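# nightly structure sweep
# worker-07 picked up a monomer target from the shared queue
# config: single-sequence mode, recycle default, output format = structure tokens
# input follows
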Amino acid sequence: MEDAFIRHIELLGYEKRFFPSQHYVYMFLVKWNDLSEKLVYRRFTEIYEFHKALKEMFPIESGDINMESRIIPHLPAPKWFDGQRSTQNRQGTLAEYCYTLVNLPHKISRCLHVVNFFKVRPDDTNPVTDSQITKPEVFLLPKDAKKNPTDITGPIVLQTYRAIADYEKSSKSEMALKAGDMVDVVEKSESGWWFCQLKNKRGWVPAAYLEPMDGPDESEEQEPNYAGEQYIVQKSYTAVEEDELTLREGDTIEVIHKLLDGWWVIRKDETTGYYPSMYLQKAGEANSFVKSELRNRSAPPRRSTIRNAKSIHKQSRKQISQETYRRNSKKYIQSRRNRKENFQNKANVIIEKNEQEENKPKAQPAVPPRPSKDLILNRCTESTRRKIL
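# output follows
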């Protein structure tokens, strides 16, 4: 059996905790070779001690013998007092450190020291808490912070959602729910799978089973775009419901409405229907290992398939019928054709006018009249006048 190793480490942000005393821990989403994803929490002092031990294990790669041979990234030492500002400002460096660490040669990135440090500990799944102590405050790292470290700013308050029906998990990376459970959403993926935490549990949950506490989350969904964005089907899917489409890998389609539950409305020629977004890739976009891995999972449930749920989604959420999608798509396609025909007609008219003008006989220039002898004598030089006279 293949030894466990880490494929990717993503820094999600940090938590401010108040038990046993106020301190900060960084949140890491660790992705393993068996396709599992685990959330672990580490203090920076722990990370720095891990870093020092790694350098001692690989003195050549850490630059202790020759600085030009160093490939293990630098990591600043902890400050005498690590407050929230230093914890926040260190995120960009730490995210870059983890990215470089995983991409080092296998003898370093897959060694037991690295693997064991990022394995799930009991306090990762069951952190020591006190019911009388304030709930930990979560600060998430912006997705583009790796490109713009200066954009790392203050806290992002996690949204609390309520489960509208029971959900039984089908893999270790998912989390089971009971109707009425209150969960904090850490990450919302376009695939329709959201990473949530509930007390001591964490895992992926279908967005279709969640509703916000204060009303429908329509504001987060984009309006339909009937012009369409071109996508390529990366995985075949056979329709189960009447309003879904059956497509094959390699088909080119247009996405006209991106929905939060991960089921997007797409258009194939003049037919529209729902299709799992996790099986689509934007045209011209490079494929990635993470996206390929995601496609190995099953598509999340659709909101419309959750039966007998007393949900505010059922009560006040705006619904667009498939007939409306088709009708508006046909209108858009027809208007696009009309514009194209008008453009071609105008172009043809211009070409015809140009051809007519080219075919017209060109008028010959008039022959100028011969100047009279008196005019010549008035305008010519003295030398010419003597010759004439």
